[in-house]
């Protein structure tokens, strides 16, 4: 039987690369803070626990943040939890609720609590073999939140990091927080991305605000010349080939070693890929109802349906739905968008491209994602997004 808990390797990254951006003083201050924390831990480990190593913003941030923490001398490690599809269906329902949405509308009742808690109890058995009394455990989002009572009982110092939330409270938001309360009320430190995400019950001094961060040196932020961008997008299948002369699929990884785009995307389209010169409207996101890819497709269709020969194409791109373990809605959303695509008249379908991007290599995926965004032409983007935003 496969273990539920899996360790994710975080590549060590040096803080020195930030000196040109932030200055030596800021980097020295960060190292000083790390040394102080290392002394306070007295040999303890900082564990980060979430539900997936690929396919979302939390995983992307952890790859960078843990790498820099390790580079500063801290013993920081990353574990992912596992569970059956029913567990992830419930956690996705919670995800929607905390955004103020009903999701699949299923009840967050005692039966849901049983599945949620029993799954995390099985994960906790494996975690206790790794986590020692005095270690720090940072739980990310609703999926592992139910581990908190068991880890606290084992002597760990537990924090909960909530990356999601809603600006306005409604019945669904309250439902989600009521579900999580029995697991989180004993946690003494919580970290939210925005002040407005903090529920009333935790506005008692235990909540801190830490905004999401972007690694300036991640593969998504590296500069590539036009020749390389075109080579990669033709190779992946987003744009029409053949690639330009002497194609270049190379990039520099976050640890300064060379990388290369090897994989291609799975793309649903009618006919040919767009040419390099074709203006594009691009959305890159998870296949999640909250991202409303179906709405974007319908909005695009309504905008161009009266044009005999539309001068713009739409690319909807997301992770391969078979590669993200903690998102059971992904396949269903992609299927719904695919059905809507097939229902469009041929003149519309010829200008729509549904791309599932490879995720086996996180940094390769990042390069592909940002190259997809690079294909947008600013004039077209302004015109089309203005129309879509008016929906």
Give a short synopsis of this structure.
The protein has 391 residues and is an alpha/beta fold. Helix content is 41%, strand content 15%.
Write out the CATH superfamily name of the largest domain. Glycogen Phosphorylase B
Radius of gyration over C-alpha positions, nearest whole angstrom: 22 Å
**Strand order, sheet with most strands:** 1-3-2-4-5-6-7
The residue-averaged pLDDT reads 89
The biggest sheet, with number of strands, parallel, antiparallel or mixed sense and barrel status, is: 7 strands, mixed
Helix content: 40-55%
The SS-based structural class is alpha/beta
CATH topology of the largest domain, what is it called? Rossmann fold
Q: Which segments are poorly predicted (pLDDT under 50) over 5 or more consecutive residues?
A: 377-391
Extended strand count? 13
**Beta-sheet strand percentage?**
15-25%
Question: Termini, distance in Å?
Answer: 49 Å
State the order of secondary-structure elements, H for helix, E for strand: EHHEHEHHEHHEHEEHEEEEHEHHEHH
- CATH A-level architecture of the largest domain: 3-Layer(aba) Sandwich
Question: Count of helices?
Answer: 14
Shape: globular
Protein name: Glycosyl transferase family 1
Keywords: Glycosyltransferase, Transferase
Domain Trehalose synthase N-terminal: 48-199
GO molecular function, one term: transferase activity
């Amino acid at each position: 039987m496969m273990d539920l808990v899996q360790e994710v390797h975080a590549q060590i990254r040096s803080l020195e690369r930030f000196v040109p951006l932030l200055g030596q003083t800021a980097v020295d201050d960060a190292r000083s803070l790390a040394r102080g924390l290392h002394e306070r831990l007295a040999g303890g480990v900082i564990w980060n626990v979430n539900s997936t190593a690929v396919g979302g913003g939390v995983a992307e941030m952890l790859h960078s943040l843990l790498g820099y923490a390790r580079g500063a001398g801290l013993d920081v490690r990353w574990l992912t939890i596992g569970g059956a599809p029913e567990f992830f269906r419930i956690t996705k329902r919670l995800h929607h609720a905390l955004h103020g949405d009903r999701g699949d509308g299923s009840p967050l009742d005692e039966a849901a609590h049983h599945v949620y808690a029993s799954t995390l109890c099985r994960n906790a058995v494996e975690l206790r073999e790794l986590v020692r009394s005095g270690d720090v455990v940072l739980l990310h989002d609703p999926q592992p939140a139910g581990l908190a009572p068991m880890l606290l009982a084992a002597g760990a110092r537990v924090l909960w990091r909530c990356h999601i939330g809603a600006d306005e409270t409604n019945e669904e938001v309250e439902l989600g927080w009521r579900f999580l309360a029995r697991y989180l009320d004993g946690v003494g430190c919580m970290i939210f991305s925005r002040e407005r995400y903090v529920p009333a019950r935790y506005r008692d001094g235990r909540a801190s605000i830490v905004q999401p961060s972007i690694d300036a040196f991640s593969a998504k932020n590296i500069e590539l010349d036009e020749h390389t961008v075109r080579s990669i997008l033709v190779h992946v299948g987003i744009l029409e080939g053949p690639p330009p002369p002497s194609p270049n699929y190379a990039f520099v990884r976050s640890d300064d070693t060379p990388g290369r785009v090897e994989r291609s995307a799975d793309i649903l389209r009618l006919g040919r890929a767009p040419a390099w010169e074709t203006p594009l409207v691009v959305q890159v996101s998870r296949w999640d109802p909250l991202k409303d890819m179906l709405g974007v497709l319908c909005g695009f269709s309504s905008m161009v349906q009266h044009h005999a020969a539309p001068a713009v194409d739409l690319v909807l791109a997301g992770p391969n739905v078979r590669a993200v373990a903690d998102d059971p809605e992904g396949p269903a959303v992609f299927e719904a968008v695919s059905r809507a695509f097939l229902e469009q008249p041929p003149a519309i379908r010829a200008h729509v491209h549904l791309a599932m991007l490879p995720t086996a290599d996180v940094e390769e995926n990042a390069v592909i994602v940002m190259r997809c965004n690079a294909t947008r032409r600013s004039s077209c983007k302004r015109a089309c997004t203005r129309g879509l935003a008016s929906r």
